[in-house]
Amino acid sequence: MTATERGRVAAPHPTDFLNVDALLSDEERLVRDTVRGFVRKRVLPNVDRWFEEGILPLELSRELGELGLLGMHLEGYGCPGASAVAYGLACMELEAGDTGVRSFASVQGSLAMFAIHHWGSEEQRREWLPRMARGEAIGCFGLTEADFGSNPAGMRTSARRDGDDWILNGTKMWITNGAIADVAVVWARSDDGIRGFVVPTATKGFSTAKIEHKLSLRASVTSELLLSDCRLPGSAVFPEVRGLRGPLACLSEARYGIVWGVMGSARACYEAALDYAKHRVQFDRPIAGYQLTQEKLVNMLLELNKGTLLALHIGRMKDEGRAHPAHVSFGKLNNVREALAIAREARTILGANGVTLEYPVIRHMNNLESVLTYEGTSEVHTLILGQSITGLAAFS
Q1: Which CATH architecture has domain 139-242?
Q2: Domain map of the chain by residue range?
Q3: What is residue 348's three-state secondary structure?
Q4: What is the CATH number assigned to the segment(s) 14-133?
Q5: pLDDT confidence of 154, banded at 50, 70, 90?
Q6: pLDDT band at residue 4, thresholds of 50, 70 and 90?
Q7: Least confident piece of the model among 7-16, 17-26, 37-46
Q8: Would 14-133 and 246-390 be classified into the same CATH topology?
């Protein structure tokens, strides 16, 4: 390359340094830009208040449905059938607004809707999926229990047959959307193994308790599900799937969205720190001009761009049918860890201002503390990768 040719190459963008944008199709950019516009108009002007008050407005469900973002990667029943990459880009932009908004869409589409779409009967699909895609019905996913998070095989929630009906008893903990859901996908232990059930939340014996006093994911509804002699018809059970294969397939879908989503949080923190550093004057010059601050910004930039490329690569593999659940664990382990490191580093650049809601950093940082341990802790994903590369399970 001659000096003249080098002169024609545009300088790298301070955020998209590796020009990942050029690797996207026009349709993928349209999805990204549409969701980014929605977040800027609807989420960012309000999310600090939502976070402070511990709320997520119910009307967001229909608004996300109108954009086609709920179950967007599923096909039929009112779902758009978008690519994995397009879905990932949507998750990234939603989480650049707030993890709570991305979590709502993720639980709705990749847990509750995916479970019904993948494992449900035709009757269950027709009854719930179109309404859920429009945001008219909200779903939640009941797997985790207070004593059984990383080890769902130990769940105590039970399901027993009573004639043609099923009777469910037990509790589920840390359930996103629980208190606002119209339908819950609940996994329970039966004489026939672990089974999944579609439970309308109006069913007698089903109740919820909202989990209060959170310092993370405050713009998100987190609940406990309580099932006390909850009677369901035989048609409520997923007809074929038994064992942990059912819920684990759903978790892999949700984890994939996290691989992208946390890069949205990381980007928001990096951009806030970069802008702040260029305007914050200390010792008569912007702190962006000091070597230690530049080192922080560069390290953040490196991990942000590498993590985004990793998400895109796994997304392309997923669209081509080549992504293994261990690949998703690879992405979740790396990207959440690096996003949290970026948020913490950004907080140091903002100094005392970094702990206020005037800037998005502490909100994203607190949210990422939850993402670090939900949908599989770092330890669990480390062991999944360890088993994948050695062939030896070290979970117990």
Answers
A1: Beta Barrel (2.40)
A2: 14-133, 139-242, 246-390
A3: helix
A4: 1.10.540.10
A5: confident
A6: low
A7: 7-16
A8: no
Q: How confident is the model at residue 390 (pLDDT cuts 50, 70, 90)?
A: very high
CA–CA gap between residue 312 and residue 74 (Å, rounded): 19
The pLDDT value given to residue 3: 60
31 HSE (CA, 13 A, CB side): 22
Which fold does the domain 246-390 belong to in CATH?
A: Butyryl-CoA Dehydrogenase, subunit A; domain 3 (1.20.140)
Q: How far apart are CA 377 and CA 316, in angstroms?
A: 25
Catalytic-labelled residue, pool 52, 320, 375, 379: 375
Quote the CA–CA distance of 283 and 301 in Å, as a whole number: 25
Residue 265, Cβ neighbours under 10 Å: how many? 30
In 14-88, DSSP assigns E strands to 75-76, 79-80
341 vs 338: CA distance, rounded Å: 5
Cβ pair 257, 328 in contact under 8 A: no
Give yes or no: 320 in active site: no
pTM for the complete prediction? 0.94
pLDDT score, position 6: 64
